[in-house]
UniProtKB/TrEMBL annotation:
The lineage of its organism: Eukaryota, Viridiplantae, Streptophyta, Embryophyta, Tracheophyta. PANTHER family: XANTHINE DEHYDROGENASE (PTHR45444). This is 2Fe-2S ferredoxin-type domain-containing protein. It holds the Pfam family Fer2. Its cofactor is [2Fe-2S] cluster. The keyword Iron-sulfur applies.
């Protein structure tokens, strides 16, 4: 798996370096995914790294307890695209190079809550 090492928002004119590391960004933090996690969903990974706000409800994508926001740069439109996905259904490596925002990423008691919370 290769991933871009520059932020997608830098646009097409930025120099692009490729890496053999699988990388995702969780709440603004770059995380290198080690080999051997193909069996994990995004939800399992988030909870394993200590982000407990994303919950497992039905495990089928119907209840929304595991909803997170995923962002990526669309080369065609030259804009960032944002999607709500069910973390319980998303294979971890399918999100390589993308930015994931969880409920912890939009606010907490120490930094202040976001109005949506």
């Amino acid at each position: 798996m290769g991933s871009l090492t520059k932020a997608a928002e830098e646009g097409p004119s930025a120099a692009v370096d490729w890496s053999d590391e699988a990388v995702i960004y969780v709440n603004g933090v770059r995380r290198v995914l080690p080999d051997g996690l193909a069996h994990l969903t995004l939800l399992q990974y988030l909870r394993d790294i200590g982000l407990q706000g994303t919950k497992l409800g039905c495990g089928e994508g119907g209840c929304g307890a595991c909803t997170v926001m995923v962002s990526c740069y669309d080369q065609t439109t030259k804009k960032s695209q944002h999607y709500a996905i069910n973390a319980c259904l998303a294979p971890l490596y399918s999100l390589e190079g993308m930015h994931i925002i969880t409920v912890e990423g939009i606010g907490d008691r120490q930094r202040g809550l976001h109005p949506v919370q």
